[in-house]
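Researcher: Structure for this, please.
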Amino acid sequence: MPVAAVASGYPIPRASCTFVGAGFVCIIGSEMAYYGMHRTTLVLDERKLKKARRLLGTKGIKDTIERALDEVIAYDERRRAVDQLRTMEGLDLDDPEIMARAWR
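Model: Predicted structure, token format:
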């Protein structure tokens, strides 16, 4: 069964599928379908793109945007972790009994 059957739930005979990043591309006859990806056209500020490429160490536009999105997601996860430590919500680090066992 081709990979496309997994994404759509329906078997697609003679489909050629390739994984690309977080999704995959299937070519069926002369048609191309993207799964798990979004294709769009953007107007970007060249100065910002150049600076982002330098800061992120990327070369292409797609790589730069993908890396920037990864950085935003990672930033949010770090911010949430700091907030959790600040409020101790869901943590037992202030429980003396737990902490006494942690250092054994």
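Researcher: Any notable elements?
Model: The longest strand covers residues 15-20. Confidence is low (pLDDT under 50) at residues 1-12.
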